[in-house]
Amino acid sequence: MTQTIPSEGTGDTRWGIAVLAILAGVIAATQIGKVPPSMSVLGAEFAVGMVALGWIASIFNATGALLGLPFGALSDGFGHRKVLIISLWTIAAGSLLGAFTDNYTMLFLTRILEGIGYLGVIVAAPSLIVEATNPRDFGLALGLWSSFLPFGFATMMVTSPWFLETIGWQGLWLFNAAILAVFALIFTIATRDLSTLPNRQEEPPTLRLGQAFGVARLAGPWLLVLALMAYTLQWFGLNAWMPTFFAGTLGYTLGGAASLSALVVFANGPGAVFGSWLLHRGWANWFLTVLGCGFMGVIGFLVFSDFVADGAKFWLALAFSFLGGLLPPAIISAVPTESPSRSHIGAVNGFVMQGNNFGYMMGAPIFAFAIERTGTWESAAWLLLALGVFGVAVGFVLRRHEARRLG
Fold first, then answer.
1. CATH fold of 15-194+205-405, please?
2. Contact call for residues 73 and 350 (beta carbons, < 8 A)
C-alpha cells in the first residue's frame, strides 16, 4: 500500500530503488498467476475437485487475511529492505518445496509458506517506494505500484502453459523458485546503500501493537477494507476461473484460454494507472470506488450470463478487469487520510491488506461452491452482481464519511 505523502523532499527520486521494489511486487504476484492455468493438471494429479483447487489458489492469501495488521505495524521498525529480502527468499523456499510434494496436503502447506512471503513483500515494498520517491513523483510511483498484481499475475498466466506442456507443473514451480532466488540476490546487492533516499525516516515509529490494533475500531479503515474486499472477491473470483471457463465452456485450447485470461488480468494494470491519473485530476475516491464496483458487477454478470453471445464474453471480461482497476488506487490513496497519525499508517495499511487478502483467499472457493452447487456458470453471474451492489453501497457510505470528516 502507501505511506503518508511527505510535504517536501530532500533529494531526487531514486528510481532504481523504486523500480526494484515494484518488481518485487510483480515477481511475488507471479506466484498467484501460476495456479489458475494449472488447475486441471493439479486436479488430475491429486484427484481433487474445484473447491479443493480453489483453496490451492486462495490459501496463498490466508496469512494476509489473518496477519495483515500486525505485519503492517511491525514492518517499519524492522526495516523495509530486510523484510523484502527475507520475504523473497521465503516465497522461493515455498515454491521449491512445492515442486517436490506428492500429495495435496503438502502442496497446500507450501502455498501457505509462499503466502507468508507474499504478505511481507506487499507490506514492505510500498513503504520502501515512498522512502525512495520525491513527493513530486509520488503519483507516478503510486500508479505503477497499484498495477503490480495484474502485471505479475498476467505474465505468469501467459507463460505457464508452455511449462505445463513441456516440464509439467513441478517444473513450473522450480522455475519460479529460481527466478525468485535470482531476483532476491540482485535486490540485495542493488539496495545496499539507502542513505540518500529522499524520504528516509531516521527513527523507526514507536507505535505499540495495542495502539495499532486500535485502528480496527475506526470507521474509515473499515470502509476501505470492505471496499477493497468487494473488489478482490469480484476480480479474483472471475479471473481464477477464467482459464477453466474459456477452455471448458467456450471451447478454447488450454494455451488459448490461458492467453486470453492473461490479457484479461493484464488489463487491470492499465486500469489502475488510469485510476491514478483520474485521482490526480481531482476525481473523488468514493466516486471511483462506486464506478469500479458498479462496472464490475454489471459487466461480470454479462460475462457468465446467457444474455450475450460467447464471442463477446472475452471483450466483456477485458472491460471488467480494466474498469475494475479504477478502485485499487482510490483505496490506496485514501489510506493516509484515514490514519489517525503518521505512526498509524503501517497499521492501517496492514488492516486494509487483510480485507484485500480475504477477498483473494475466498474468491475462488466461493465461486467454485456456487458453480458446483448449481451446476451452471450463471450462478457466478448473480454472485458478481451482488458483490457489485455491495461495493457500490460501501462507496456511497464512504462518501458520507468523507463529508463528515472534512466538516
1. Growth Hormone; Chain: A; (1.20.1250)
2. yes
Residues in Cβ contact with 247 at an 8 Å cutoff, skipping those fewer than 6 apart = 40, 253, 254, 256, 257
* pLDDT value, residue 203: 52
Q: Are 145 and 122 in contact (CB under 8 A)?
A: no
Cβ neighbours of residue 396 closer than 8 Å, sequence gap 6 or more: 286, 290
Q: Which one, of 63, 114, 119, lies nearest residue 89 by Cα?
A: 114
Which residue is it, cell 457468465?
Answer: 304
What region, left, alpha or beta, does residue 49 occupy, with left being phi > 0 and alpha being psi -120 to 50 degrees?
Answer: beta
pTM over 0.85: no
- Distance, in Å, from the CA atom of 176 to the CA atom of 91, rounded to the nearest integer, reads 9
Helix axes 15-33, 168-190, angle to 10 degrees: 170
Compute the distance between CA of residue 385 and CA of residue 46 in angstroms, rounded to an integer.
33
Q: CA distances (Å), 91 to each of 55, 115, 327, 357, 371, in order?
A: 18, 7, 27, 16, 31
Distances (CA, A) of 219 to 96, 212, 302, 390, 395: 41, 15, 33, 17, 13
Q: Residue 180 corresponds to which cell in the numbers above?
A: 525468485
Rounded to 10°, the helix 254-280/138-146 angle is 160
| Furthest CA-CA distance within the chain | 62
Q: Which H, E and C letters describe 108-173, residue by residue? A: HHHHHHHHHHHHHHHHHHHHHHHHHCCHHHHHHHHHHHHCHHHHHHHHHHHHHHHHHHHCHHHHHH
| Spans of the chain below 50 pLDDT | 1-8
- Alpha carbons 361 and 212: distance in angstroms, whole number: 24
Instruction: List, in order, residues 6 or more apart from 200 with CB less than 8 Å away.
Output: 131, 194
Please write the tens of the pLDDT for every residue from 4-24. 444 445 578 888 898 999 999
pLDDT of residue 128: 84
Q: Which of 51, 61, 3 is nearest to 235 (CA)?
A: 61
> Is the C-alpha dihedral spanning 346, 351, 356, 358 positive or negative?
positive
Residue pair 337/219 in contact (Cβ under 8 Å)? The answer is no
Q: What is the percentage of the chain residues whose pLDDT exceeds 90?
A: 34
